[in-house]
Amino acid sequence: MTTFATGSTGSPSGQDALTRDALTVLQPGFTGTTAPDWLLRRLGEGLASVGLFGRNITSPEQLSALTAQLRAEHEDVLVAIDEEGGDVTRLEVRTGSSVPGNHALGAVDDVDLTRDVAFALGRRLAECGVNLNWAPSADVNSNPANPVIGVRSFGADPDLVARHTAAYVTGLQAAGVAACTKHFPGHGDTAVDSHLALPRIDADRPLVEARELAPFHAAITAGTRAVMSAHILVPALDPDRPATLSHGILTDLLRGELGYEGLIVTDGMEMRAIAGTYGIEHGSVLALAAGADAICVGGGLADDDTVRRLRDALVAAVRSGTLPEERLADAANRVRALAEWTRRATGGADAEAADSGRADLGEVGLVAARRALRATFAPLPYEPPVQPLYVAAFTPVANIAVGDETPWGVGAELARLLPGTETGTFAGDSAGASALAVAGTRRIVAVVRDEHRHPWMTEALDVLLTTRPDTIVVEMGVPQSPPRGALHVATHGAARVCGRAAAEVIMSAT
Predict the structure, then answer these.
(1) Backbone angles phi, psi at 185, to 5 degrees
(2) What digits encode the pLDDT tens for the residues 402-432?
(3) Strands 487-490, 374-377: parallel, antiparallel or unpaired by DSSP?
């Protein structure tokens, strides 16, 4: 007869303890702005983590009520969120973020500012009852064609990314919110979005160690409480399995060589890189066996059936000997240990917040956005606009991590400063000609996002600038293309606050 370890509740039933551990390692999502009955029931049965997304949030007050509802069922529940600030925001999914993202902070390159932004963001999360943030992104964006990282990265230089990753971890955790540094071992040198397929990095091991791993070294030294794995294949580290499913990467490298002792969280298991190759049930078993401690699922699959399927798959794997009982118990205990840390950290964070004198989220965010902005003027004198403008937003298809529900651009902020300003959205081969036709005689502000990755944007700007050389260009992605236009503004991100900073410069004479 197999003997099962007793779970955290001291249940005398081996089967109950095993089932509780299987639930404990899951981090599911759900739909709606209040917790559904099935989720509350699972929390009572041992589920220890819940992931929140933009669909779950309408206001700080509603979010606080939701997290209180969860804690009424399970006092030590880990409430996780994907709040990077900048382009990836869940707290402000319908308005745009009050803080710029990593790329803007990297452009400023002031680690104290990065720490202050992370602290202010962490304090906002903690006030709403969130205690685990799936951030920061420690990916080195060395491949300009990367479709999913981009402005989510601090930059392309490993040393810069390392020091700002450490500062972000320090600031966030000083506010009592656990950081989850991602996407290990590094998603920057990819040209495929792992939401859609399995990316591959073909760098040799010395380069991977010097480039991809450097920011994770820094995060571990800074004390990051969690690390998120990437669904990427790195043959120099494991030629057969993606990082999330690789014992060599998660256990031998991350735990063994890097000495990391905290929680290892998977990226979303419903992403096609895993779901389309291994399936979420088998993939989750392989991830736990490889060394992961928490299975993130719920961005796309967000129902009780998913939780039940994964729970049952883990239990069956232990009973069949596919997944060692000790490995599942160790993973569950690491989840509980992080919950205990967040409970202890909250009191210290409250004291630091009271004594810090640091600016609030909106104040520090605007300061950061203004400092990150780079303006390049044409040789001719720049004439600030005095009449209503026409904003032509050349809009690419949003990647899944960012989503398309969050507004971006400069139109709203320019309309506030110059009433009567209008905005239109354009895409495709005829974008430039269409924008000219609609704008008429009004001066044009052309807004692009990663122009270097979208040839049609370059063609659209060619058309505009040939006919209307007074056009103002705003780049709200990674500024790889050469600056052009009467004024070229690089914001290093598309957060709402970046749009405000750009609008201020457009309206200024200097």
Answers:
(1) -90, 10
(2) 667 888 999 999 999 999 999 999 999 999 9
(3) antiparallel
